[in-house]
Amino acid sequence: MTLNIKQHLISIFLFYSLLKTSSACGGHTLTVNAIKSCDQNGLVQTTNDFTIGLDEDCNVYMKGCIEFKPYNTADIHFNFDRKPFSNVTGNVDFCDFLKSLTFVSNIFGSFELPTDCPIPAKKICGDPTNTYNIFMFSPFLDFVAGHTKMRLEGNHDTGKSCMEFDVILN
User: Fold this and answer.
1) How far is the C-alpha of 20 from the C-alpha of 32, rounded, in Å?
2) How far is residue 93's CA from residue 152's CA, in Å, rounded to a whole number?
3) Could you give the 3-state DSSP secondary structure of residue 98?
4) Partners of 92 in the beta sheet?
5) Domain containing 155 — which CATH number?
6) Which of the ends of the chain has fewer CB neighbours closer than 10 A, N or C?
7) Which pLDDT does position 46 carry in this prediction?
8) Where does residue 102 rank: exposed (0-12), middle (13-18), buried (19+ CB within 10 A)?
9) Residue 62: which of 25, 18, 106 has the closest Cα?
10) Is the CB of residue 62 less than 8 Å from the CB of residue 130?
11) Beta-ladder partners of 139
12) What does pTM read for this prediction?
C-alpha cells in the first residue's frame, strides 16, 4: 500500500498530538488540550487523566489508561483541521496504515499499544518510566507547528469508535 500525504499527516499528527505540554526537543512548547473518546460507548476509551508527555531528553512517556474492545477491521474517517490551512478529510484503513508505517508500530509497541489487527480486548495503563526516544523526529516539529484539531471516526466489524485530539505546538 502506498501512503499519500494525508496518511503521512495523520501519522505525524497522531504521534505529536499524544505529547503533553513540554518544552523540549528544540525548545518547542506543546500543549495537549484534549485526547478523548467522543463516543462513550465506542470501542476505544481513555481515562480522564490519559496523556503522553515529553521530557527534556526527547523521551515520550504515557500516563493514564486507554482501553480497547476487540475488533478486526478499522475503517477510519478523519478530519484534520490546522489553521490557516484548509481542512483535510479522508478515509483510511487503519489496520493497513499500522502495517505500512513501521515507525508508528514501533512507537505503539513500545507502550504495548496494538500494532496490527485484529485488536484484542486490552486495557493499557502508562508507566512514566517506560519511554521512547523521538529525537530522530525532532526536525518535523516545525512542520506540525500551530493549533491542530483532529477527529477520527471508526467503523469496525464489532462497533464504532471516535477519538478527538486538540493540540497546540509553538
Assistant:
1) 5
2) 12
3) helix
4) 76
5) 2.70.220
6) N
7) 93
8) exposed
9) 18
10) yes
11) none
12) 0.79
Q: What is the largest CA-CA distance in the chain?
A: 43
What are the grid coordinates assigned to 82, written together? 490546522
Characterize 2-25 residue by residue with b for buried, 16 or more Cβ atoms within 10 angstroms of its Cβ, and e for exposed. eeeeebebbbbbbbbbbbbebebb
The whole domain housing 106 covers 5-169
Q: What's the rounded Cα separation, in Å, for the pair 116 and 120?
A: 10
The helix (H) or strand (E) run that includes residue 69 is: none
Number of domains in the chain: 1
SS3 7: helix
User: Over its length of 170 residues, how does the chain's per-residue pLDDT go in tens digits?
Assistant: 444 555 555 555 555 454 444 455 677 666 778 889 999 999 999 999 888 777 777 777 888 999 999 999 999 999 999 877 788 999 999 999 888 888 888 888 889 988 899 999 999 999 888 988 877 877 777 777 789 899 999 999 999 999 998 877 77
Length of the chain measured in residues: 170
What's residue 19's pLDDT?
A: 46
* Grid cell digits, residue 74: 478499522
Q: What is the pLDDT of residue 24?
A: 56
**Judging by beta carbons within 10 Å of its beta carbon (0-12, 13-18, 19+), is residue 120 exposed, middle or buried?**
exposed
